[in-house]
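1st attempt posting a full record on here, be nice pls
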Amino acid sequence: MTIYEETKMLMNKYNIHPNKRLGQNFLTDEKTLETIVEDVQSDDTIIEIGPGLGTLTAILAEKASEVIAIELDPKMVEILQDRFKLYSNVEIINKDVLKININDLAENAKVVANLPYYITTPIITNLLKTNIEEITILIQKEVAERICAEPGTELAGAITYYTNYYADCEIIADVPKEYFIPHPEVESAVVKMKKIDIPRVEVKSEEFLFELIRANFSKRRKTLLNSLANVIPKEKLTKALDELQINPSVRGETLTLEEFAKITNLCYNRRWDLLEKDRIKKGGTIWIKFLYHQRYMLPKN
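the predicted structure (as C-alpha cells):
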C-alpha cells in the first residue's frame, strides 16, 4: 500500500475531513518523507509537532529510539492513540505546542515535523530558544526562503535575522502542493536548522536587538531613521548612526545582522537617555524605570 493509499484509507476509516483552521494537509509523497527522516539515528529522541494521521510518526517510530508526538486536535489524538497503541516508543501529547516547555520533554532531542503553516513562525522562534540542537521541518516555501535568506538581501525578513542569530539553515527539498491531501494553496519546502554553539553576534540585550529588527520590518519601506523612531528618539538615533557610519536614509532591510548588533550595543549603552521619551509619554520617573528594567532586564543602577 502506498502512502497515498494509506492516507485515503485512514481518512475513510476514521471519517476525517482535514481541518483548514488547524492547517491540516497530509503529506503523501514517500520520497519527501524519506528526505525528512534521513538524518534520524537509532538512538535519537524525536519530537514531532502536528503528527496528524501519523504517517511521519510511523516512519520515525521505526528509525528512532523514542517519538514524542504533540497534537492539538483531539480527533487526531484518538487516531494516533489507536494506531500506535502497541508501540512502546511513541508518546502522544494532546496539547498546544506553544504552551509546552519543550525542555521538559527530553534532555537531548531533535524536532522533525510537518508544521501547521499558520503558526510556523512562533513555533520556530520558540524552538530556537530551547535545548533542541537540530530541527527538520516541512513548511511553506515562502517562509522557508525567508528563514534561509542572507540578512540584508531582498528575501530577508525579521525571521531571517532571528534564525541567522541562532542557527545555520538550508532548504533541502522543494515540495509541490500536489504531494498533499488536500492540496494547500502554496508550495512547500523542507528546511534543516542546526543550532550554532554561540549566537552569531554578541549583543548586550537580545530582546532589544529583536525589538529593533521587528520595528524595522514593520515599516520596511521607510528609511532606517524613520522605522526605528518609535524605539529610539530620532535625535539619539541620528547621533548613533553617525558614530557607526551607517547612512540613516537607507532602508533597514539592507542592514546586516552585524550592523543591527552595533546599533543595539551602542544605544543600549545609552539606555538611560532613551528613558526621557517614555517619561514624557507616560510620566513618573520611578514607574518608567521599573518598566524599562522589566522589559530589558537591566541593572537597577
